[in-house]
Amino acid sequence: MDAFFSVGYMVSIAVVIIFFMGIRIIRPTHRGLVERFGKYHRFAGSGFHWIIPMIDVMYKVNITEMMVDAESQEIITDDNLNARVDAQVYFKIKEDEESIKASQYNVNNFHYQIVNLARTTLRNIIGNLTLKSANSERGKINDELNRILSKETAPWGLQIVRTELKEID
Prior knowledge:
Largest sheet: 4 strands, antiparallel
Strand content: 25-35%
Structural class: alpha+beta
Number of strands: 9
Mean pLDDT: 90
Shape: rod-shaped
Radius of gyration: 24 Å
Order of helices and strands: HEEEEEEEEHHHHE
Low-confidence stretches: none
Helix content: 40-55%
């Protein structure tokens, strides 16, 4: 009889441990994707969630506004002068399920991709301007960069909030 009670006691302790191992809390600034055996299973909004330990994995995705520095680069302008250009891109992942999935499954390392896309886009925009017009038309350059980045990153589930040229020298 003692063996029966100790087995029951051990089983109940194991169930409690497994229950607590599966608890996940998602803050209001994040959303979650649950994968079961490596395949997308469900979307998790903010709050309390339970996953099956060792079978499910939850990936938390930050949906707050983030900033990446497009790193300073030398660009040759239309009048064959060198311009050192530095920009920042402010973006966020949209809150809906499809956008969260797209940010994780449609692009590898979107932070790195945005930096490179912003750098090449700036090179194309400023390469068609003279140095004088590039300095005087910062707003136009910001708007064009924002428009192009918004169009290109839409399939990734991202929203470009704004772009800022830090300097043109």
